[in-house]
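Slide 14.
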Amino acid sequence: MGRYCCGPGPGEKTYIYVGEIGDNAAKFDYKYIYRLEEPKLDLSSPVEVDVTTIDSIKFQLPDGKRDTEAIMVDPLTKDLYVFSKREKEEIHVYVLPFPQSTTTLVTARFVMKLAVPLP
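Slide 15: predicted structure.
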C-alpha cells in the first residue's frame, strides 16, 4: 500500500484518501487512490468503524510508469496531487483535477518538476 492523506471531496464531507501508488520497479500501468468518508468518532466509548462505501480512482501518468510516493488533496479545489521520487535530483508533480472519475481511467496531468539537490 502506498500513502494516505485527508481532505475534502464530493459534497461538503471530509475524506480519507489511501494511495496504492508505490512502484519501485516502475512496472505497473495503473495506480489507485481509494477514497472513503472520514468517520465521525465518539472517543468516549470503544471505537468501531464500519466502512460501507469506498470509491476507487484508477489513474495513469501521462509520461509512463513511475514510482510515486506521496499524495495530497488541495483543500480549496479538491484536486489530488501525486509526487514521484525516482528521478535524479527532481520530483515530478501530477494532478488529478476534481471531480475525479470513479468509473473510468483518469490520466493525471503533469504539473511541474521540483528541483531537489542531493546532499
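Speaker note: The chain has one domain: 4-115.
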